[in-house]
């Protein structure tokens, strides 16, 4: 029997996401020529789904088929992102909990994580979602251990970041089910890189300050403009006229990270901007961004993004740019 995948779509689904699971999983054959996967898409009540592309998708299945699934994938979209515990469709909540209790593998792509979080299935677990929605997610679901800067997370329940990261997670599932060789075969059919590890970072924009006149925000604005200088926690605390302990506490409350981690993230973001927009040598970019040497920049880039500065520039600043 093929591995049965059921994708759940909600109103406001993205057209690409409706067809993506079938595009990835179908057509992968075993040694006897039989399909390894069967993919179906359903919706609550079997209702037609209005997509963000302006057309209505008639799916032909309701949530009852989830009972037959080996893997359930919650698709993203505006309806998924608006999910909250108080407003979650009761049948959808019941179906997902029943699937989990049966041992069905539960997966979300992009903002589909909002649905899983609303059910409570992500409480206490590590999870991720599309980085532009991370603060909204964190505010709505504080019990989830959100990791907003990775491609996907496998912590019993699987979640992915935005569109391309959903493809990475699907390839990860194929490799888990049938081995890396089949995962690589699926990647070749999709004309994409064989595998990006889940811990590889999403490429996110630099931090932008809230326009609230807050004393701490002013220090962050200053630090962001002086990344090439020595930025110790003590010096930043003094600039904010706070004790180091109070500054660190306020900093974490506002940014959900430590001052040291924030500075490193800002410096790497500045380095990325320079790699994309200039032809400066890596050593010079390291100096301007406050990362010291080219060697240190390369090490930080490999650790955070899973690629070298040169590889990054090749992708984001093509020849002739």
List its salient traits.
321 residues, Rossmann fold, Arc Repressor Mutant, subunit A, alpha/beta, 2 domains, six-stranded mixed β-sheet, 14 helices, two-stranded antiparallel sheet, single chain
Account of the protein in words:
- This protein has 321 residues and is of the alpha/beta class.
- It has two domains: 188 residues, Rossmann fold (3-Layer(aba) Sandwich), CATH 3.40.50; 102 residues, Arc Repressor Mutant, subunit A, CATH 1.10.10.
- It is built from 14 helices and ten strands.
- The strands form three sheets. Strands 2-1-5-6-10-9 form a six-stranded mixed beta sheet, sandwiched between helices. A two-stranded antiparallel sheet has the order 3-4.
- Helix 6 packs antiparallel against helix 7, helix 9 crosses helix 10 and helix 12 crosses helix 13.
- The protein starts with a strand and ends in a 5-residue tail after the last helix.
**Which structural category do the helix and sheet elements fall into?**
alpha/beta
Number of helices: 14
Largest sheet: 6 strands, mixed
Kindly report the name of the CATH homologous superfamily of the largest domain.
Class I glutamine amidotransferase (GATase) domain
Strand order of the largest sheet: 2-1-5-6-10-9
Give the DSSP E fraction (strand runs of 2 or more residues). 5-15%
Q: In CATH, what is the class of the largest domain? A: Alpha Beta
- What proportion of the residues is helical, as a percent range? 40-55%
Low-confidence residue ranges: 197-202
Order of secondary-structure elements: EHEEEEHHEHEHEEEHHHHHHHHH
Distance between the termini: 51 Å
User: Which of globular, elongated, flat, extended, rod-shaped describes the shape?
Assistant: globular
Computed over alpha carbons, the radius of gyration is 22 Å
CATH architecture of the largest domain: 3-Layer(aba) Sandwich
What is the count of distinct domains? 2
Count of DSSP E strands? 10
The CATH topology assignment of the largest domain is Rossmann fold
């Amino acid at each position: 029997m093929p591995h049965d995948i059921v994708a759940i779509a909600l109103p406001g689904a993205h057209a690409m996401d409706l067809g993506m699971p079938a595009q990835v999983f179908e057509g992968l054959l075993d040694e006897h020529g039989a399909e390894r996967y069967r993919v179906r898409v359903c919706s609550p009540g079997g209702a037609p789904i209005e997509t963000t592309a302006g057309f209505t998708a008639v799916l032909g299945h309701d949530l009852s088929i989830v009972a037959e699934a080996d893997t359930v994938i919650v698709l993203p979209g505006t309806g998924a992102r608006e999910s909250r515990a108080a407003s979650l469709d009761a049948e959808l909540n019941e179906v997902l909990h029943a699937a989990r209790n049966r041992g069905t593998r539960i997966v979300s792509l992009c903002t589909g994580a909002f649905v899983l979080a609303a059910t409570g299935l992500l409480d206490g677990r590590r999870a991720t979602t599309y980085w532009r929605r991370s603060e909204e997610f964190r505010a709505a679901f504080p019990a989830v251990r959100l990791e907003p800067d990775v491609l996907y997370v496998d912590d019993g329940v699987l979640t992915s970041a935005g569109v391309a990261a959903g493809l990475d997670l699907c390839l990860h599932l194929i490799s888990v089910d049938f081995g890396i060789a089949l995962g690589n075969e699926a990647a070749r059919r999709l004309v994409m890189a064989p595998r990006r590890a889940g811990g590889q970072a999403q490429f996110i924009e630099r931090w932008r300050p809230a326009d609230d006149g807050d004393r701490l925000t002013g220090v962050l604005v200053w630090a962001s403009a002086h990344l090439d200088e020595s930025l110790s926690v003590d010096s930043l605390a003094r600039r904010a006229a706070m004790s180091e302990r109070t500054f660190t506490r306020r900093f974490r409350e506002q940014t959900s990270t430590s001052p040291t981690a924030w500075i490193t993230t800002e410096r790497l973001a500045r380095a990325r901007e320079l790699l994309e927009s200039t032809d400066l040598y890596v050593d010079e970019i390291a100096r301007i961004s406050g990362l010291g040497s080219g060697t240190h920049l390369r090490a930080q880039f490999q650790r955070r993004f899973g690629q070298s500065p040169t590889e990054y520039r090749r992708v984001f600043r093509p020849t002739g740019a």
